[in-house]
Specification:
This protein has 117 residues and is of the alpha+beta class. It is built from 3 helices and 4 strands. The radius of gyration is 18 Å and the shape is globular.
Length: 117
């Protein structure tokens, strides 16, 4: 017979929120799992190829999705807004701002898009 063990919560342990790179990595893995080709637009020092460029661009069969990852108190910067406006003017689509993989899942469900079909 297996004895049940009660686990107490530890109020002294504080969970740290995920970093920008952790959220970005998780989103990339999720989108690649769905069949998207994902292009990261920043170098190893986290500098964009061009100021304002979203963190990644996911390319599917029916959808190209620029994704800007925001964590914590991070805000949209003027150059990012400028890039997003230019993208929207040219494509009639929007840059997606995500704080988690769940945001991406919800957005794709909202669009009704399946990358591999």
């Amino acid at each position: 017979m297996v004895k049940a063990i009660r686990v107490r919560s530890r109020p002294d342990v504080i969970e740290t929120p995920p970093t920008h790179n952790q959220v970005l990595r998780d989103i990339v893995q999720y989108l690649e799992y769905l069949g998207f080709v994902v292009v990261k637009t920043h170098d190893e020092r986290n500098r964009p190829a061009k100021a304002g460029t979203p963190d990644l661009i996911a390319i599917g069969r029916k959808l190209t999705l620029p994704v800007e990852v925001k964590v914590g108190e991070d805000i949209i910067r003027p150059k990012q807004l400028e890039w997003a406006r230019a993208y929207t003017e040219r494509t009639a689509r929007h840059v997606f701002y995500a704080r988690s993989v769940l945001d991406v899942q919800n957005y794709l469900n909202y669009l009704g898009t399946v990358a591999w079909k």
